[in-house]
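Figure 3 (text version): structure tokens given as input.
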């Protein structure tokens, strides 16, 4: 009897051990499934992040190229602006020089009006001829000189 009882106890212990191992196996299988799901989610996340990283790198390279192009454009515009300012300065200087020359010409020249008829001579004896006078050596301006004909 003792033998049967020992045998029975060992069977119960063995059955208890089997039940406990089966429980542990089910738990481990559940954990394995959870870990596989987590692994799948992580792989999806990693592939999404790699795609985002590639997109960001491409965008960064494009922006760098745009910045370089804008810097070149800025340099060209700066050079053009410098040239325009230089031309503007030259034009202002040229206008000032022309204004000075114009004022010197106007001050140095005397314009005598052209008279078709002199109030002091009879009408038939008048002949109008144009001559030039030089004032200050700047410019020759025409003026009329009245000459009389002596046909008599």
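Below: residues designed for each position.
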């Amino acid at each position: 009897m003792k033998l049967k009882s020992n045998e029975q106890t060992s069977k119960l212990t063995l059955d208890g051990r089997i039940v406990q191992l089966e429980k542990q196996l089910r738990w481990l299988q559940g954990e394995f499934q959870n870990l596989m799901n987590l692994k799948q989610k992580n792989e999806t996340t990693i592939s999404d992040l790699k795609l985002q990283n590639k997109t960001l790198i491409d965008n960064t390279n494009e922006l760098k190229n745009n910045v370089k192009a804008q810097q070149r454009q800025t340099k060209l515009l700066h050079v053009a602006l410098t040239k325009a300012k230089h031309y503007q300065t030259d034009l202002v200087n040229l206008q000032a020089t022309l204004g000075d020359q114009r004022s010197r010409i106007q001050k140095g020249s005397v314009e005598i009006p052209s008279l078709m008829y002199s109030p002091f001579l009879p009408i038939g004896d008048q002949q109008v001829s144009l001559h030039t006078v030089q004032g200050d050596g700047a410019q020759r301006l025409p003026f009329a000189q009245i000459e009389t004909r002596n046909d008599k």
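The chain has two domains: 2-108, 110-152.
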